[in-house]
Amino acid sequence: MVTDILIKDKLGRIQRRSGVPVYKQLEQNIAEFINSSPDQTYFPSEREISRILNIHRKTVSRALTSFFESGRLQSTGKGTFTCRTAAADPEIHELNFMTFPLPHPERRKIRILSYENLPLLMEAWRKIIDSFERRHSGVSVEMVYQYPKFSELGYGLFDWLADSEYDAVQLPVTLYWDRDYSTLFAENSPAFRRLLDSPEFRTKQLIGPVIPFVLEHCYPVNFGTRFCSVNLDLLKQTGIKKAPDDFRELIRMLIGRKDRLPVFLADHPENIIDMVGRGNADSRPYTAAYREWFGTEEPDETGLFRSSSKTVEAHTFLPFLERQVMLCPNGSGCRLQMLNQQATFPMKHYLPLPDPGCHSHFGGNLFAVPKASSAPELAAEFFSFLYETPNQEIFAGCGLVPARISCDPVLVKNLGGISLDEFRTFAAAGLERSSWQEGRCLNSLNNNSSVIKR
């Protein structure tokens, strides 16, 4: 009887019409049970779970497989028991996930958007989540499965964030997940066609490491093609009742609210170049305001604004934000790296990230920075964690580094991918925290990874 109650209470939250496979929902419930239970807690048998929840045993078996393989569930002669730390890599145990205090003693949830069918990514995040939960026992991490319809995510993202039960969101990014969409790029690239047809592509997806951070004290402002729609949703959260006439006014209103730090997101440079430079259907009313602010003429074919005193790339069209921290995927910002040596950017902090690549069709990357005393400290904390060797080894060990895929290495580089050796180079170079604390930007780590100097 006790077992029946335990199973129904801990494992029985199954929504059969949710669109998420039953085995995935059960898998999530099992993970939460293990994470919230002491080691060596008794775990019910496959047969008991199947009977009490009225779920086919094959479905239960599928949900349990990864836990037995990883050692989080262990069978003995006396039954099955939980083991949260058995499969943990000693390197991962030392992962410095967050160093800022968690002010609320009660258990909080972090929502992580992920795919149903990316086991390698799931395994990598499971390891990071385990390490995080071991360090912060007052925080519970929940996996929420989002099918890859990222073209619609721009409209729904802030609805996710509005759920007060959650404090953070992590959006994993694939590189050209949709094969039909990918054929557009394959037409002029035989190497990319070979990649699409290779078995490695079907088994080892090109996934970028995306780090979840607390959004509780941040305003996420999206510079994507759905610019206007997304930010109108944002206004509803801020309590601003009347939409401003231009985006500058919106930012001023946000800055005026001292309770949060604005964090600006860029999912792909073409979106911003198009929005600011050429003015697409969503952003045309704002283009004139940007040009007026910069005092510039039309951008040239590279997407650059030219002025008498400076060259301003489209990513930097909000130079007046004193606390601005811009986060952009390295794959998306590869062209920016070539411009860093030439241009003087008015932004104080720019972080090119070592992501194997993404495309705006899939929603891009989402990052957030926790509240702290100053933007340099925030950026330093984010940057130092991102390049931690254990973190990169997790993804490399799960086959999530493009260089591990048997395809044209030139193609990988063109797509913005970076190799495991480059991961290690970043980690070995370390972080010059003192320069951040003194208010200066981070020096370039190497010739391939530049942080724009002030």
Explained architecture:
It is a single chain. This protein has 454 residues and is an alpha/beta fold. It is 41% helix and 13% strand. The chain is built from 20 helices and 15 strands. The strands form 5 sheets. The chain has a 4-stranded mixed sheet. Strand 4, helix 6 (119-135) and strand 5 form a beta-alpha-beta unit. Helix 8 packs antiparallel against helix 9. The chain is globular. The model is unreliable at 86-121, 138-193 and 199-454 (pLDDT under 50).
**Per DSSP, what share of the residues sits in E-state strands of 2 or more residues?**
5-15%
CA gyration radius, whole angstroms = 23 Å
- pLDDT < 50 runs, ≥5 residues: 86-121, 138-193, 199-454
What is the percent of helical residues? 40-55%
Oligomer: single chain
Total of domains: 2
Class from secondary-structure proportions: alpha/beta
Strand order of the largest sheet: 5-4-6-9
Biggest β-sheet description: 4 strands, mixed
Number of strands: 15
State the end-to-end CA separation: 67 Å
- Which word captures the global form? globular
Number of helical elements: 20
The overall pLDDT, averaged over residues, is 43
